């Protein structure tokens, strides 16, 4: 009779060579049993010989898998919209949007946060990404960081969390202690909490006021949640930040009127945006941008509202930065 170790030299002695079976020693038995219940960790026998396929065949399979992710997101749109409305309400009062996660999930949060200043002219302190283990974990795994709820609480305390803030815990499995700890700590402090996971019935969703469980199913590579789960998380984070900024008046229609022109490409884009919004000549656009120190939103109001730069700034301040409302006010006075 062949022993388990003969069949699988990497197996723990005495452990049945069965995917998901708890190891007999009990060292990781409980965790293995938990992981065995997760869709994101499920083994797909039909893909067991994928490495024998051609590169194009594998690419077609991956592409087909990726195509299923938007449908998984679509199933949760009502819950996502409710979470966004609650986030925008808090941010309108001066609150911040804070992402917290480990590994891929943490990196996606940091990425989304880092893109808000150039896209929406937010201050770097308004949208923040926390990753277990700190900034170095963006490129190098920090051992054990994701397993600490206390680390998450300490990271949030370092930001002086307030009740107007929103904390989004991100975890594909929905069981990562760092993400759960962030949500639990934030909720205890009165902040709005959102738990984004890729498994149903997750502890993360249960801990949050708004549980978003987007379930794209088992991965092409067993447990590699940077794939479909990562794509699902990226899509939802895109929605949370983008639609929140739309609600806060950071756009005019589908134009990024709060874009920060920090390089040549963005300076050219600024002029294109003013042109699309106003139909003005190049000379008018340059004059308006010069008068408003390059502020696209203000320049549009100068052109469309036929007001000077100080008046445009005052009207936008009265409208809490909403260009459409400021335009209405200018045209009715």
Description:
This protein has 333 residues and is of the alpha/beta class. A five-stranded parallel beta sheet has the order 2-1-3-4-5, with helices on both faces. It has helices at residues 4-7, 29-35, 55-66, 69-74, 77-92, 103-120, 149-158, 177-188, 203-207, 228-247, 264-278, 282-291, 296-305, 309-318, 323-331; strands at residues 97-101, 127-131, 166-171, 192-197, 210-213. The model is unreliable at 1-24 (pLDDT under 50).
List keywords for this structure.
15 helices; 333 residues; alpha/beta; disordered N terminus; 49% helix; single chain; 8% strand
Residue ranges: pLDDT <50 for 5 or more in a row? 1-24
Write down the overall mean pLDDT: 90
The number of helices is: 15
Termini separation comes to 92 Å
Number of strands: 5
In spatial order, strands of the major sheet run 2-1-3-4-5
Q: What is the radius of gyration computed over CA atoms, rounded to a whole number of angstroms?
A: 24 Å
Q: In terms of structural class, how would the helical and strand content be classed?
A: alpha/beta
Helix content: 40-55%
H-E string: HHHHHEHEHEHEHEHHHHHH
How much of the sequence is in beta strands? 5-15%
Largest sheet, in brief, is:
5 strands, parallel
* Tertiary shape: globular
How does the SSE layout of this entry go?
Blueprint: H1 4-7, H2 29-35, H3 55-66, H4 69-74, H5 77-92, E1 97-101, H6 103-120, E2 127-131, H7 149-158, E3 166-171, H8 177-188, E4 192-197, H9 203-207, E5 210-213, H10 228-247, H11 264-278, H12 282-291, H13 296-305, H14 309-318, H15 323-331
Helix pairs in contact: 5-10, 6-10, 7-8, 11-13, 12-13, 13-14, 13-15, 14-15
């Amino acid at each position: 009779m062949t022993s388990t170790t003969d069949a699988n030299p990497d197996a723990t002695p005495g452990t049945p060579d069965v995917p998901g079976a708890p190891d007999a020693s009990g060292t990781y038995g409980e965790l293995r049993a938990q992981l065995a219940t997760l869709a994101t960790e499920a083994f797909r026998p039909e893909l067991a010989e994928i490495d024998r396929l051609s590169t194009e065949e594998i690419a077609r399979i991956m592409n087909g898998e990726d195509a299923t992710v938007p449908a998984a997101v679509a199933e949760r749109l009502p819950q996502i919209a409710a979470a966004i409305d609650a986030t925008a309400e808090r941010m309108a009062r001066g609150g911040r949007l804070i992402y917290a996660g480990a590994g891929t999930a943490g990196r996606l949060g940091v990425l989304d946060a880092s893109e808000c200043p150039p896209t929406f002219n937010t201050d770097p302190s308004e949208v923040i990404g926390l990753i277990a283990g700190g900034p170095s974990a963006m490129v190098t795994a920090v051992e054990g960081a994701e397993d600490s709820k206390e680390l998450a609480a300490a990271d949030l305390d370092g930001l002086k969390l307030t009740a107007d803030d929103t904390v989004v815990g991100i975890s594909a499995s929905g069981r990562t202690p760092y993400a759960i700890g962030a949500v639990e700590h934030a909720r205890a402090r009165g902040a709005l909490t959102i738990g984004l996971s890729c498994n149903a019935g997750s502890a993360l969703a249960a801990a949050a006021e708004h549980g978003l469980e987007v379930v794209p199913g088992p991965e092409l590579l067993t447990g590699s949640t940077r794939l479909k789960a990562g794509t699902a998380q990226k899509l939802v984070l895109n929605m949370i930040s983008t639609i929140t900024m739309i609600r806060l008046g950071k756009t005019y229609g589908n134009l990024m009127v709060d874009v920060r022109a920090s390089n040549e490409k963005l300076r050219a884009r600024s002029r294109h945006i003013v042109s699309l919004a106003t139909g003005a000549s190049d000379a008018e656009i340059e004059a308006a941008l010069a008068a408003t120190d390059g502020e696209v939103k203000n320049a549009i109001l100068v052109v469309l509202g036929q007001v000077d730069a100080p008046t445009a700034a005052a009207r936008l301040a009265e409208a809490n930065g909403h260009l459409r409302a400021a335009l209405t006010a200018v045209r009715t006075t």
